[in-house]
Amino acid sequence: MEEVRVRFPPSPTGYLHIGGARTALFNWLFAKQHGGKLILRIEDTDEERSTQASIDGIIEGLQWLGIDWDEGPYFQTEFADEHVAAAHRLLKSGHAYKCFCTKEDLEHKREAALAEKKSDVGYDGTCRHLTAEQVAEKEDQGLPAVIRFKVPERQGTLFYDDEVLGRIERAYSEIEDFVIVRSNGKPLYLLCNVVDDIRDRITHIIRGQDHMTNTTRQVLLYEALGARLPVFAHMPLTLDLKKRKISKRSHGEIVAVQFYRDHGFIPWALCNFLCLLGWNPGTDQEIFSREELVQAFSLSRMSRVNSVFNFKPGDPKFFTDPKLIAINEHYLRTMDLTELGDMVRKELEAEGLWDPEYAASKQQWYLRTLGLIRDRFHTLKDFVTAGRAYFSDHYEIDPKPLAKNVLKQPELAVWLPQLAARYAALAEFTAEATEQSCRALAEELAIKPGVLINAMRTVLTGQLAGPSMFDIVTTLGRERVVNRLSTIRHLFTEA
User: Fold this and answer.
1) Strand ranges for 271-391 from DSSP E
2) I need a labelling partner for 124 at 20 to 30 A (CA). Which of 2, 84, 282, 432 fits?
3) Which tens digit of pLDDT belongs to each residue from 307-344?
């Protein structure tokens, strides 16, 4: 059986966006499922816009997502001679010709065709039938020329079978003779892409439906170059709520893979979400491990309908698609604590909160703490914001719970230090003992225990909600709890 070979060929003109990441993911899944190879090819022929920073960003983004490749990265510019040679072969075989029409000539003809309300305003084939002598004469005059592909003058339609969309047909008469080499001698994407895919022995081309305008012309190039046609699979596009295609230009950093890395998302959570944009497993399952997704993925389950990336600019709660946030939350709650600990470590290190003992004598405490606080968190960033009080004595207290649970009851400036004194004197600092001590003080003060408990939560963690209060107390430890409850008077004087 022939080896499956697919490719991901990004253009390094910006960051890796989620549309490109989804294309890479689907190709990766297909290759893994069939025991095939994924080739990474950087299509860097746009010299003005291609940058090393973009190349680095694409590679780092794929590595962060865990999408590995089997060959490459290859760079399209390294094979420029092959592209030129292919164009010359097409000239020699009669599948292409030199065109000396200027931009001004072409624009004038187009305007005239529009004025006459002609349905066909494409290239009219002026240079298609030039004789060898006429071509030589124009070359002797130093006239610049592009190379155009000579579309066969056939009746009927050109067609190919798409794995997602079925049979795609287009009348030969609707395809104009298209340019494959610029007047400066540089081949265009249409030709370069085909030549590279032939050289890399690509068997399946899985890409977005926005490339379909190129596909029929590329089918002609495969045929003219005597190469076997690969299997095409055109994925649905990803749109925003206004039905606009997700793009770097229109949506900015919110569609960049780096945005999700820098905002504390788990790499596989993003992959899990991306696979659901345009693909349906045929069941209600939405959470997939790598192994499950490789096994479940199928081009036959690809939707023909465009998917929607549901984010609302300016909404702090849903700053990205709510389903992505929910999937990320699921992984935070359920993933192996050691693996989570490695991820949180990077966040703590970035904020200067990492204690080397968390990987040594305090490792058990560290992992237990993550297990305690992770259930209410959305991203890894929450461990250094909402969870900061567990790793540092320098943390902010949310103004809302501070006003509600502490400042409205001035007596707490006395009551909480009293509780701290009792905690300092406890024989055993356990959840049961600290709770009993708290409730006993509340009874003596003739107040509801919730007054003390809610105030404690706010003072000790800076947050309105969280795990069981007395699990928090024992996790923070006697020294921190006593110190924080004893030194709260400044909260009232600063208010």
Assistant:
1) 307-308
2) 84
3) 999 887 777 777 899 999 999 999 999 999 999 999 99
Q: Cα–Cα–Cα angle for 322, 235, 256, nearest 5°?
A: 45
pTM score > 0.85 for this model? yes
Q: Give dist(CA 394, CA 398) in Å, integer.
A: 13
Express each pLDDT in 387-408 by its tens digit.
Answer: 999 999 999 999 999 999 999 9
Would the CA dihedral through 282, 284, 287, 288 be positive or negative? negative
Mean pLDDT for back-to-back runs of 10 residues, the chain (495 residues): 94 91 98 97 88 94 98 96 98 97 85 70 87 95 96 93 96 94 94 98 97 95 98 94 81 90 97 96 95 96 92 78 96 97 98 98 98 96 97 96 94 97 97 97 97 97 95 97 94 78
Cis amide bond preceding 10, omega within 30: no
The residue type at 413: A
Q: Burial letters for 372-409: b for 16+ Cβ neighbours within 10 Å, e otherwise? A: bbbeebbbbbbbbbbbbbbbeeebebeeebbeebbbee
3-state secondary structure of 291: helix
Question: Do residues 238 and 59 make contact, with C-beta atoms less than 8 angstroms apart?
Answer: no
Cα distances (angstroms) measured from residue 334 to each of 26, 296, 329, 424 = 25, 21, 9, 35
Kindly list the catalytic residues: 248
Crossing angle for the helix pair 267-275 and 52-65, to the nearest 10 degrees? 90
Q: Give every CB contact of residue 39 below 8 A, 6+ residues apart in sequence.
A: 5, 6, 7, 8, 69, 70, 71, 72, 74, 200, 202
Tell me the CA distances in angstroms from 127 to 100, 131, 181, 370, 400, one per residue in order: 7, 9, 15, 71, 75
Nearest CA among 341, 320, 340, 332 for reference residue 260? 320
Q: Residue 403 has what DSSP assignment?
A: I
**Distance between alpha carbon 203 and the CA centroid of its chain, in Å?**
25
The mean pLDDT of the chain is: 94
Q: Which is nearest to 480 in space by CA: 390, 407, 411, 414? A: 390
